[in-house]
């Protein structure tokens, strides 16, 4: 039984995949403790608020029925995390993850179960006193083992969302670049509609990546906001201190292979102005999400260049049509001139100069026809030279 009286069911990530969507409730949560053990919970918002001591407005951010941008909020005893499909509440001792049966959340569940337990705890479970043989390959694991619980959970969430957005960006690139190349070779309604849909998808994905990047940048620019995420340090400073000067939470957190003394670690962690550990963590994933945003920016520039190239082609064709229209108009003028002379001589009106000069009609018609033919020939040669008509 949970401490709030809710029913607790042991979590089975593999079995979650067969759960039907209609059985998924918006109240479904999974709880992870410090050992990485997960338990499914069915809690309403009041039970959640009482358990982690957050306000209703903070819990509203995690509502899947509402559309809120990516947000990382630091509260007194919890971190409210809303990163796309990853909606979680992290405390100094446990992690509450929403909708664990979602196909995009299941990898996060498995990663939390693997990385939340400390290295020393997993060694004790594996060997019953056997010596752990890791050597130099476990140096990074030892450093990660020294991180507070909330940072390990936060790192899993950041890594998951950065990998998810990077994968969506790669899929978009694989579909967009061939479509753009095909459009430049053949302009058709099908290709134009295909590129239009890809551009819309790119715009939406760019907005999502930009929001995650802005949230990380905002945290990095404010030391106070980063200090609010040190939940273990705040819990340690509020707990009774032993005679040796170390807090109760610190004595329960053994370090492995530490290159600095226990006293220096304790001093650094109790320094409220020291946010270097979290800053390094955020900077790593800020660089990754910024790289993803740069790839989307490059794709947008490629799309803009393709649009400019298509517009230039269309302008060229439009100019050719205008020149062809001018060519046809000139031919019409020539024929009109020839028809005008013929009409004048064909009028049933007596002319004094027409008497005894019957040859005048044939002479004028011949000269006018020759002049019109010469003018039309000159226009045709000019049109062929400009490529307006075929040879």
Automatic annotation (TrEMBL):
<dbReference type="InterPro" id="IPR039204">
    <property type="entry name" value="MRS2-like"/>
</dbReference>
<keyword id="KW-0812">Transmembrane</keyword>
<dbReference type="GO" id="GO:0015095">
    <property type="term" value="F:magnesium ion transmembrane transporter activity"/>
</dbReference>
<dbReference type="GO" id="GO:0016020">
    <property type="term" value="C:membrane"/>
</dbReference>
<dbReference type="Pfam" id="PF22099">
    <property type="entry name" value="MRS2-like"/>
</dbReference>
<comment type="function">
    <text>Magnesium transporter that may mediate the influx of magnesium.</text>
</comment>
<feature type="region of interest" description="Disordered">
    <location>
        <begin position="117"/>
        <end position="145"/>
    </location>
</feature>
<keyword id="KW-0472">Membrane</keyword>
<keyword id="KW-0460">Magnesium</keyword>
<protein>
    <recommendedName>
        <fullName>Magnesium transporter</fullName>
    </recommendedName>
</protein>
<keyword id="KW-1133">Transmembrane helix</keyword>
<feature type="transmembrane region" description="Helical">
    <location>
        <begin position="363"/>
        <end position="383"/>
    </location>
</feature>
<keyword id="KW-0813">Transport</keyword>
<dbReference type="InterPro" id="IPR045863">
    <property type="entry name" value="CorA_TM1_TM2"/>
</dbReference>
<keyword id="KW-0406">Ion transport</keyword>
<feature type="coiled-coil region">
    <location>
        <begin position="195"/>
        <end position="222"/>
    </location>
</feature>
<comment type="similarity">
    <text>Belongs to the CorA metal ion transporter (MIT) (TC 1.A.35.5) family.</text>
</comment>
<feature type="transmembrane region" description="Helical">
    <location>
        <begin position="326"/>
        <end position="351"/>
    </location>
</feature>
<keyword id="KW-0175">Coiled coil</keyword>
């Amino acid at each position: 039984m949970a401490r709030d009286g809710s029913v607790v069911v042991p979590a089975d990530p593999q079995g979650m995949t067969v759960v039907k969507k209609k059985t998924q409730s918006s109240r479904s949560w999974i709880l992870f403790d410090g050992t990485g053990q997960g338990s499914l919970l069915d809690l309403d918002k009041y039970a959640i608020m009482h358990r982690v001591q957050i306000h209703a407005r903070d819990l509203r951010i995690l509502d899947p029925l509402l559309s809120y941008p990516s947000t990382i909020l630091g509260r007194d005893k919890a971190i409210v995390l809303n990163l796309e499909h990853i909606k979680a509440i992290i405390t100094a001792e446990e992690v509450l993850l929403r909708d664990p049966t979602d196909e995009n959340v299941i990898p996060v569940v498995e990663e939390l179960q693997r990385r939340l337990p400390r290295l020393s705890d997993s060694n004790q479970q594996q060997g019953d006193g056997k010596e752990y043989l890791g050597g130099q390959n476990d140096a990074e694991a030892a450093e990660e083992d020294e991180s507070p619980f909330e940072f390990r959970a936060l790192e899993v969430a950041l890594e998951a969302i950065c990998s998810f957005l990077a994968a969506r960006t790669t899929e978009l690139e694989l579909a967009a670049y061939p479509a753009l190349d095909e459009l430049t070779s053949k302009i058709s309604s099908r290709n134009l509609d295909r590129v239009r849909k890809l551009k819309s998808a790119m715009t939406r994905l760019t907005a999502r990546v930009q929001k995650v990047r802005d949230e990380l940048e905002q945290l990095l620019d404010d030391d106070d906001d980063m200090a609010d995420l040190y939940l273990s340090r705040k819990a340690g400073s509020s707990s009774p201190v032993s005679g040796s000067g170390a807090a109760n939470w610190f004595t329960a957190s053994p370090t492995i292979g530490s290159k600095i003394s226990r006293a220096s670690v304790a001093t650094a962690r109790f320094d409220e102005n020291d946010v270097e550990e979290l800053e390094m963590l955020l900077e790593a994933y800020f660089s990754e999400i910024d790289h993803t945003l740069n790839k989307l920016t490059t794709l947008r520039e490629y799309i803009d260049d393709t649009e400019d190239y298509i517009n230039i082609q269309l302008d060229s064709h439009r100019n050719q049509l205008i020149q062809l229209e001018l060519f046809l108009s000139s031919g019409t003028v020539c024929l009109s001139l020839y028809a005008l002379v013929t009409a004048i001589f064909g009028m049933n009106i007596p002319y004094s100069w027409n008497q005894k000069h019957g040859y005048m009609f044939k002479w004028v018609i011949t000269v006018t026809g020759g002049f019109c033919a010469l003018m039309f020939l000159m226009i045709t040669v000019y049109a062929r030279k400009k490529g307006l008509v075929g040879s």
